[in-house]
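This follows on from our talk about sequence and fold. Can you supply me with one protein entry, sequence and fold together? Could you add the entry underneath, on a fresh line?
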Amino acid sequence: MENANMFFRQYYLQCLSHASYLIGDRSSGKAIVVDPQRDVAQYIADANAEGLTITSVFETHFHADFLSGHLELAAKVGAEIIYGHGADGRVDFPIRTMKHAEHFSLGRVDLELLETPGHTPESACLVVHPEGPMSTPYGVCTGDTLFIGDVGRPDLLSSVGFTAEDLAHQLYDSLHNKLMKLPDATKVYPAHGAGSSCGKNLSTETVSTIGEQRRTNYALAPMTVEQFVEAVTQGQSVAPLYFLFAATKNRQAHDLFVDDKEIVMMSLEEVIAAQSNGAVVIDSRDDMSFASGHLRGSVNVGLSGRFAEYVGEVMDPGTAIVLIGEPGTDLEAKMRLARIGFDNVLGALNNPVRVFFENPSVVEQQSRLSVDAFNERISSMSNVVLVDIRNPGEVELGSIPKALHISLPSLLKRIDELDRDAPTVVFCRGGYRSSIASSLLKSHGFTDVSDLIGGYTAWVGAQS
């Protein structure tokens, strides 16, 4: 850290591509957390280790992709929750709001709020001045307004009273007339990196500068506002199904996260009973293990990938969940689900390998096709339904002929458009998402479902 008085730490949660920040002033002992994840113990531990007290939480906007830890920090350390002025009257818990260019002090470290609507109406950024309000900015926490290599998508609220075009116009103004007015050396600390559905072209880097973004970010290239609107609204992925749930939940007073050290281990009979009562069984093993044998009706979402996000795409929020996973992974899976507000985990199947071996009648295998087997099937069967579950931007680059495009976040809502009795093959780019999709379809009564091993990438490679 260049300034000895200021403490600044980034926390990057890879499985949600989420960045949060702890900023402290050693002269006063005060600290603030920006966009915290729901399990907040790390911020408190690090603040204590540095002799700091967390007095404030700053939320750059109402997050849609995770459940924030603002209420947890308010309850645990008495932190004041701060938003930009656009959040006034829109939450049902105590907050403080700040207007554009308003400052507040941690001590010598000064924080300046910039109202930057566009990704959402209430979006705001936080400029960090290390030596008082007139000192050269060290960095800016940009939330979902400015990413590394991208900007926040303006279309997430287009179905709830705001058009993507209107928000994109606001975003253009926020970027060019506010953020780009900062010195080029100002460091850019966004809320997300590559993999996030809050943008389409995010970098794997987690920090940049205003100057670098001015030079390299496609959305900041010289263009008219009309060209900008088109650039940032086209080619966006379909928003995960749970986004509206999380964004709404972040505005409400809700149950706090409980860091359970144990999980209820369930018998096969208990799992099947829960399943018959509407619970979704999520199998978090890898796709090959799932294919070789799994509980009938379970859905495969591998823990090694973007587990919580994809679980949030294949079930309605609030649905009871039972977990099946590799030994020792159930608590991690439960934690990841809690980070998006999916708290209704009933438990996990005890010793699934032994249960499957001793109860073959409840076990089934998943059909997975090599490219050769896939080609043979579509050439020998005239009624095969192909479903491309990739995002629109991926599909624009090419697809398998005659494939129906239904992106994974849309599949649950559009499932009745498909014939449950028709032979169906689903594919994605590499195979992870297609295993999710094929198991989802099978859990909803589809009788002949397969997915393509290696996905579209393997199919294209076999054509050459």
